[in-house]
Each structure stands twice: as structure tokens, then as C-alpha cells.
């Protein structure tokens, strides 16, 4: 296929602005899927994606499109919209020359619109602004065009107004892809060179790598090498994604497709890696920054007899998601398990849900935490750790003040977009989260964009939910990492009947210890069902108890019997800590502030 008739592009947008719907329309119009199949969001394949209506894993499709008597090959890469998955967006972008930036005609520019725009802008891609949902009663495309002009400095004339739902003007989008996005700069004469921009693990065939061919050609039987590990493989199968795998004889420069070459582990086909022919070595492409885990939590089997099963489930799931980090861990109450690192809380929840749905595993997830750092002052400890600075991903191992000269916490720069009527409430919320305002501008006469520097631990669990609820769903939020800052942190223990529950240990800012401890105890009291005896719930710093509650016990005999029966039914979801039954979702729910 001639390179000058290839276009590689992705669709980026804030969540729910209609990426998947537009992708469906593009697939239908180019005949990749039938209109009659009642296909909805066919690119969202995972069960969690269908349930939550969000895209988690980017999917790719090659489309054939006839334009002015010539056939074009359009490679569309669908991307997820949520902040935790912006990593997927940046790798999709690196395989493209252009993007469709979708903005909802009613909601206008939102936080992820801004974040995604900058990813594309910094990669110097052609940006085609598309205003979607013009069929809505409250659609205001004029206003959105003004926002696009003001915030992104893109002339309003470049905007295309569409309804992905009804198909209105979707043909104009296809024309713009052909006319405005440049073809990839790649020549079939060059030695073969391809970028791995995604990879999946398939139980039967091993690793299926999605590649963008930057030069030359590759065919079945070729001997290829992955630059990162320097290992050689024989190509078993390759082809286009339309969006299902469509085997072909060869892949050429400029094309996007999949390749299977007997790799047993996604680590062998790392995202950002370069593939080349064994007889024609080339210099590796620059690749990507590895994704950095920002939220850590312990994961334990409900019952130690399920340990091996859970281990293999975690192994298989991480085969597909190289951004998850795994370390073995153990706890007195929960036994042997793991400490996993995720890109964010949603990433963690999705991982957990996939473990339960796809692998039928039953998991206890402990309170999530961010990676803190401590600068050690004790010579003995420095020697033990081989470094003066340690990273702590498990609050139970948080070192005592007496051996530390300084604690550091991870910071993020957050962007909030909101109708201006909510700015007061939002500023109060941010202040309560120890945030510092960096910037505030009006993007039109009613909408405000604010930037805040937040400690990550203040937004990890529940910030987003609160922001949404106090703005009736109108405010949006996104963030990027902003390094570390010194902070006055302390470790807080939660005790049940005098016994510390390691899984509920948290690190808090000193100023916030009292209120956080009180709130955690209250919520724990509400989430522990009545048992046969009283339970004392305490929050403590060192040996000092800062908050204390006692639960009622079950009452008379008949009630006790009912209680026992009810508990037996709920058993699978309960976890015994000492002599107390704790619901398995309590670990996360006690951290959520009202
Ligand atoms: P994520 O994958 O979760 O990031 O969302 P998305 O951007 O892919 O959005 P999706 O295509 O799932 O659309 C979100 C909602 O908007 C769905 O309920 C769609 O039916 C609806 N929608 C999409 N396009 C249009 C449109 O042109 N008009 C109207 N009225 N609704 C639309």
C-alpha cells in the first residue's frame, strides 16, 4: 500500500464525549463492521469496559476508505479517557501523525480535553477539533468553538460539528483525516523497523504485539529481534486489525498491525520497544517513559488455600498490563499476599474487578497508599538500606521520626474545569486537602479553569467523587505528577480490641491526624456488623490513642441466632482479624471522607 495514502490517527477526548461512538460510526462507514449488527462500542472488548462504559485498553482498527477515486488506509487507534489511563493515550499518540480531539457540544472543554490536547500538541501531531453531540437540545457549538480558540489557539473554522450518534457530518471527519493529517514518514526501501505500542497476552498464542511499522517490511518466517532484550524470534503470524485480527502476508512501512512471534511474556514485547530484522540491525526508537505506579495496596486471598490460584491470576493479568508492579508481601492478619502498584485508584479498582470477573478470584484489598519517601538520619539504617533515602509503599513499614530527618510526599499538579458557580465550594474543598492554588482563568463567560498543587495522598481515594458531587457532576479533574515535597507526616494505627490492624495503618499529615482518625473509627464502626461481643475501635499515634468508639453487641439469644445465620451467609465477604469479623471492602471504604 503506497505510504502517501496511509493515515495514522487516534481519537482523544474527555470521558463520555463520544470517542467510542464516533469510532463505531467510522468503522461502519468504511465497512469494517456491519451497520445492522447493532454494534455499540465494538472497540470496548473487556467486560469491565462494557459494564462501566469506559475504555480501559486502547484498541486499534485499520479502515479502507475511498476518497476522490482513490483508496486510503486509515489506521484508527481508540484511546481511553480516564486520567489513570493517560499512559495509554501517550503511547497511542506516538504511533500517529494526527488526532481527532472530540469535545462535547454541551459540556465544552473539560479537564481531560486539556490534558489530552497537550499530549498531542507536545508530540507535534495535527489536531482536528471535532465538536460532537450537536443533536442535543442544549448543544452550544458556538460557545465550544470560542473555548477551543481561547484555550488551544486553534481557529474556529477548523472545528467540525458532528453528531456521532446520528452520523451527521461524520463523512467530513473522514475527509479531514485524509486532507489534513500527513502520511507517516516511512519508506519501504529502508530496513524494517517497528514500534511496539501495545501488547496483549493470549493464552494460546503467546504475546500479540501491536506495532507501527516505521520502515521496510516484514513477513511470516522472518527472524526479528526486540531491541530492549536483544532476543530473536521467528514471525509466526502478522496482519491488520480491522478491528479483529486479519492475517496478511506482509506488513509494510506506514502500516499499523499485529505480530505474533513466539514471545511468552509481555515483558519481551515492552511498550515502546523497537523490532528489527536479525540480518539488518537498526538503531532503536526513543521509546516511552515507563509508567510510574502512584497508588499501592496489599492484595490477599480471602483464604490462604486460595493463594496459588490468586498468584496465577495476578501473574496472568499483569502479563497484559505491564504498568502494574508486583511485590510479595505478608501480614499477620491476612497471611501471604502481594503489594501491587497502580497508576491510580481507578486502575486499581479495574484490576481488582478483572481479577474477580475474569479469574473468579476473591481478593482482599488493603487501604491504598502513595509512595512516600524518608530521608534517613540513622547511620545504621542508611547502611542497612544502602541509601540515605527510602521509598515506603507500605504504611506499616513507615519509619519512626527518631531515625528520619525529613519525610517527603508525592505531589501532583491538578487541573479543574468548572462552571463558575461552583468555584467557592471547590476552593474550600481544595484548601481542606492542603492544596495550593497556582492559577485560575475564565475560559468563557461562565467556565473557570483552576490549577492546584495537591499532595497526592489527599486526592487518591475520594477527591474526585466529592468534586463531582459538590458540582452536580459539572466539574472535571485531571492531574500530572509534580515531584516530591517535604511534609510533616505521621503513622496512624487503627486498633480493634486493642490489636493493631496492619491493613488499616495509614500515613497522615500531622494537622489532619485527629480528624482523619476520628472519621476512620466512625466509618469502621458503621461497616463492622454487630457481633456477639463489644468491639473497641481506636485510632492511635504511637502509644497515644486519639479516638475511641465501641460497637454494640448482638443482644438476646434469638437475635444472636439470626445474626449467626446472617454472618454465615455473608461469610465469603468477611475477614477475621483477631476475633473480629471485618467486611472485605472495609479497608477502602473507611478512607472515603464524606
Ligand atoms: P469513554 O470510552 O468512557 O472515554 O467514553 P467515550 O468518549 O468513548 O464516549 P461514548 O462513545 O461511550 O459516548 C458516551 C455517551 O454519549 C453514550 O451514551 C453515547 O450514546 C453518547 N453519545 C455519543 N455521541 C453522541 C451524539 O452525537 N449525540 C448524542 N446525543 N449522544 C452521543
UniProtKB/TrEMBL annotation:
Identify the domain of life. Answer: Eukaryota
Please name the GO terms of the biological process aspect recorded for this protein, alphabetically: positive regulation of translation; translation
Q: Which residues form the Tr-type G domain?
A: 4-185
Main localization of the protein?
mitochondrion
This protein's GO CC annotations: mitochondrial inner membrane; mitochondrial matrix
Tell me which UniProt keywords the record has, alphabetically.
GTP-binding, Hydrolase, Membrane, Mitochondrion, Mitochondrion inner membrane, Nucleotide-binding, Protein biosynthesis
What positions does the entry give for GTP binding? Answer: 13-20, 78-82, 132-135
Membrane disposition: Peripheral membrane protein
List locations, semicolon-separated: Mitochondrion inner membrane
Q: Does the keyword Zinc-finger apply?
A: no
Q: Which CDD domains match?
A: EF4_II, EF4_III, LepA, lepA_C
Pfam families linked to this entry: EFG_C, GTP_EFTU, GTP_EFTU_D2, LepA_C
Kindly state which reaction or reactions the protein catalyses: GTP + H2O = GDP + phosphate + H(+)
Q: Does the keyword Ubl conjugation belong to this entry?
A: no
User: Which protein family is it in?
Assistant: Belongs to the GTP-binding elongation factor family. LepA subfamily. Belongs to the TRAFAC class translation factor GTPase superfamily. Classic translation factor GTPase family. LepA subfamily.
Q: What is this protein called?
A: GTP binding elongation factor GUF1
Species of origin reads Oreochromis niloticus (Nile tilapia)
**Taxon lineage:** Eukaryota, Metazoa, Chordata, Craniata, Vertebrata
Amino acid at each position: 500500500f503506497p505510504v502517501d495514502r496511509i493515515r495514522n490517527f487516534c481519537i482523544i477526548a474527555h470521558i463520555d464525549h463520544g470517542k467510542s461512538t464516533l469510532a463505531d460510526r467510522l468503522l461502519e462507514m468504511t465497512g469494517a463492521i456491519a451497520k445492522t449488527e447493532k454494534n455499540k462500542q465494538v472497540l470496548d472488548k473487556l467486560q469491565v469496559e462494557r459494564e462501566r462504559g469506559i475504555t480501559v485498553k486502547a484498541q486499534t482498527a485499520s479502515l479502507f476508505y475511498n476518497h476522490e477515486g482513490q483508496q486510503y488506509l486509515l489506521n484508527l487507534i481508540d484511546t481511553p479517557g480516564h486520567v489513570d489511563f493517560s499512559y495509554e493515550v501517550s503511547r497511542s499518540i506516538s504511533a500517529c501523525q494526527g488526532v481527532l480531539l472530540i469535545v462535547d457540544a454541551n459540556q465544552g472543554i473539560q479537564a481531560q480535553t486539556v490534558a489530552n490536547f497537550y499530549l498531542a500538541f507536545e508530540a507535534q501531531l495535527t489536531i482536528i477539533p471535532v465538536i460532537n453531540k450537536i443533536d442535543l437540545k442544549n448543544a452550544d457549538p458556538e460557545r465550544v468553538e470560542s473555548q477551543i480558540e481561547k484555550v488551544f489557539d486553534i481557529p474556529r473554522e477548523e472545528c467540525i460539528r458532528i453528531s456521532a450518534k446520528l452520523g451527521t457530518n461524520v463523512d467530513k471527519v473522514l475527509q479531514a483525516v485524509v486532507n489534513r493529517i500527513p502520511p507517516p514518514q516511512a519508506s519501504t526501501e529502508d530496513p524494517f523497523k517497528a514500534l511496539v505500542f501495545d501488547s496483549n497476552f493470549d493464552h494460546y498464542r503467546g504475546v500479540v504485539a501491536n506495532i507501527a511499522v516505521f520502515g521496510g517490511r516484514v513477513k511470516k518466517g522472518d527472524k526479528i529481534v526486540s531491541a530492549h532484550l536483544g532476543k530473536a524470534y521467528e514471525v509466526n503470524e502478522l496482519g491488520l486489525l480491522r478491528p479483529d485480527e486479519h492475517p496478511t502476508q506482509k506488513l509494510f512501512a506506514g502500516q499499523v498491525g499485529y505480530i505474533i512471534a513466539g514471545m511468552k511474556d509481555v515483558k519481551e514485547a515492552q511498550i515502546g520497544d523497537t523490532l528489527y530484522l536479525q540480518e539488518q540491525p537498526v538503531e532503536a526508537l526513543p521509546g516511552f517513559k515507563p509508567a510510574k505506579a502512584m497508588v499501592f495496596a496489599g492484595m490477599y486471598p480471602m483464604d490462604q488455600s486460595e493463594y496459588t490460584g490468586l498468584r496465577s491470576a495476578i501473574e496472568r493479568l499483569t502479563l497484559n498490563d505491564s504498568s502494574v508492579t508486583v511485590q510479595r508481601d505478608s501480614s499477620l492478619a491476612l497471611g501471604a499476599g502481594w503489594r501491587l502498584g497502580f497508576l491510580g485508584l481507578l486502575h486499581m479498582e479495574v484490576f481488582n474487578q478483572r481479577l474477580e470477573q475474569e479469574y473468579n478470584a476473591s481478593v482482599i484489598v488493603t487501604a491504598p497508599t502513595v509512595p512516600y519517601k524518608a530521608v534517613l538520619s540513622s547511620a545504621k539504617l542508611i547502611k542497612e538500606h544502602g541509601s540515605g533515602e527510602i521509598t515506603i509503599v507500605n504504611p506499616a513499614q513507615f519509619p519512626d521520626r527518631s531515625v528520619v530527618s525529613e519525610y517527603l510526599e508525592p505531589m501532583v499538579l491538578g487541573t479543574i474545569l468548572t462552571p463558575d458557580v461552583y468555584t467557592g465550594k471547590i476552593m474550600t474543598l481544595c484548601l481542606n486537602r492542603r492544596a495550593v492554588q497556582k492559577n485560575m482563568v475564565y475560559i468563557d463567560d461562565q467556565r473557570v479553569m483552576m490549577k492546584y498543587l495537591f499532595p497526592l495522598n489527599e486526592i487518591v481515594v475520594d477527591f474526585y467523587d466529592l468534586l463531582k458531587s459538590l458540582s452536580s457532576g459539572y466539574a472535571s479533574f485531571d492531574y500530572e505528577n509534580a515531584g516530591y515535597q517535604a511534609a510533616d507526616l505521621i503513622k496512624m494505627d487503627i486498633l480493634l480490641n486493642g490489636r493493631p490492624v496492619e491493613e488499616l495503618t495509614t500515613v497522615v499529615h500531622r494537622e489532619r491526624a485527629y480528624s482523619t482518625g476520628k472519621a476512620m473509627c466512625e466509618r469502621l464502626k458503621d461497616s463492622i456488623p454487630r457481633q456477639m461481643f463489644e468491639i473497641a475501635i481506636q485510632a492511635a499515634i504511637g502509644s497515644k490513642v486519639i479516638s475511641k468508639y465501641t460497637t454494640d453487641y448482638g443482644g438476646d439469644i434469638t437475635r444472636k441466632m439470626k445474626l449467626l445465620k446472617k454472618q454465615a451467609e455473608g461469610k465469603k465477604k468477611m475477614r477475621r482479624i483477631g476475633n473480629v469479623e471485618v467486611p472485605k471492602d472495609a479497608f477502602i471504604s473507611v478512607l472515603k471522607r464524606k
